[in-house]
Amino acid sequence: MTQNNRPTALIMIFGATGDLARRKLYPSLYRLFTKGKLDRFAVVGVARRSLTNEEFQDNVKESIGSHDHLDESKMDEFASKFYYHSHDVTDSESYSVLKGLAAELDSHYRLDGNRIFYLAMAPEFFGTIAEHLKKDGLTDVEGFKRLVIEKPFGHDLESAKVLNRQIRKAFPENEIYRIDHYLGKEMVQNIEVIRFANSIFEPLWNNRFISNIQITSSEVLGVEERGRYYETSGALRDMVQNHMLQMVALLAMEPPIRLTTEEIRSEKVRVFRALRTVEGSDVNSYFVRGQYGKGKINESDVPAYREQEMVDEASNTETFVAGKLMIDNFRWAGVPFYIRTGKRMEVKSTKIVVEFKEMPMDLYNRQEGSVSPNLLVIHIQPEEGITLHLNAKKGQHSGSTPVKLSYANKGIDGLNTPEAYEKLLYDCLRGDATNFTHWDEVALSWSFVDNISEVWENEKEASFPNYESGSMGPDAAEQLLEKDGFFWWPVTNLDVDKC
Ligand code: NAD
């Protein structure tokens, strides 16, 4: 696919006064603009509130003002390209006005009829908006048209299929960009490079040399003001179905024959197809759920999940999930992929630990702790980098000592940062869908997760809350690995800057 590195487009943001637009989209667009990565463009913000263009532009400037990389002189020029349209997306009338505005801006800014429709709104509106865009002629353009959709893409496989059918009436699969912002993270994108550009790793990347892989994504924050949404979601749907499974796919996929969108996605799909189904009575031996109780974070008392706003006081919603995934193919047979994710945990950290098998003979006496398994640690956030844990002779004594080789990327804090959105927006503008999820990936990951939620929703977890805020989750998550003879490598000791 030919990609224009300085794209031109009209970007329509539905949900323009919302949190996502303000915190991520405007700062990201601004960065692209200041870096000279956008050619001609204009933005139409759509939301219910009534605002003038000037008020909207002031809000946009304000949202950028709280972020770094500011260039005051460019701010006014940037904001002048923003237009506001007050519109209830369920109101059919108003789409014709929107169509007129889009045509006017298209001609004024010479946007070549290219359009991006970014749905930064609650998912129940996605289908309605997509249908209207087609029916009311907003998609009848000379140039490209692309639909960007935020998570969650459905609540389970059935609802995801319904949603997909609705949006597919208006947009073919290759025009749909489903956001998984983890795929915009520098070090998540780096997984492929580390694997496929280093001859020292690829020969070892299989069940002969790797004993297990651990992926942790822990948050210190609780559910905060998102209780209403979270009660219908939980950690399994909010984190595992999308972000955690995407990381598993990138770690486990076969080398693609080419680095094209189609080839990479089809290798990821093959991983999902090889995922061992976990259902019925097996669910609780492969998966552990947790819910945070009260506890201390940074020396301050914090409430239990059940005491949070909009949360049922007897809630059965999990705020933590740990699981063991098996990929039943030649490369990975017998190698567990352990995942864990949760809220109100001890540290905010996303890390991947690849643990290699031990040497056949214990020449240097592992029992004394002088030899440790080789680990490749990929630090996704907040710090970004790679650490390789080796054993070497150090100083006077003749034995072996664990040593670390580290590469620290100069990272910025926060997974869900504008950086990831900046990359993804730019990819979408250029028509590169590699780091967006294809429908086949969504469907397969929902069918995997649905088997687990079916059991958990029907069995109330009597032990909830079962982990203290500020801990690394329930004891059962430790036991999940212990029964296989492994343990979670403590994420705090693996930090790049502690090497
Ligand atoms: P929000 O509630 O802050 O904003 C919603 C926006 O939709 C507002 O601009 C509101 O005016 C508009 N809106 C609501 N009903 C409308 C209607 N009938 N007609 C027209 N406009 C209407 O939500 P948000 O946090 O910005 O999230 C938006 C989407 O992004 C959701 O799907 C969410 O799950 C997803 N998401 C958000 C974040 C985040 O960091 N906020 C992260 C990941 C995914």
From TrEMBL:
Keyword Oxidoreductase included in the entry's annotation? yes
- One Gene Ontology term from the biological process aspect of the record: pentose-phosphate shunt, oxidative branch
What this protein is called in its record is Glucose-6-phosphate 1-dehydrogenase
Q: Which organism is it from?
A: Mesobacillus zeae
Q: Can you tell me which family this protein belongs to?
A: Belongs to the glucose-6-phosphate dehydrogenase family.
Can you give the residue ranges of the Glucose-6-phosphate dehydrogenase NAD-binding domain? 12-190
Q: Domain Glucose-6-phosphate dehydrogenase C-terminal spans what residues?
A: 193-489
- A Pfam family (short name) is G6PD_C
* Annotated active site: H243 (proton acceptor)
Question: Catalytic activity annotated for this protein?
Answer: D-glucose 6-phosphate + NADP(+) = 6-phospho-D-glucono-1,5-lactone + NADPH + H(+)
Q: Which gene is the coding source of this polypeptide chain?
A: zwf
One example of the protein's molecular function in GO is: NADP binding
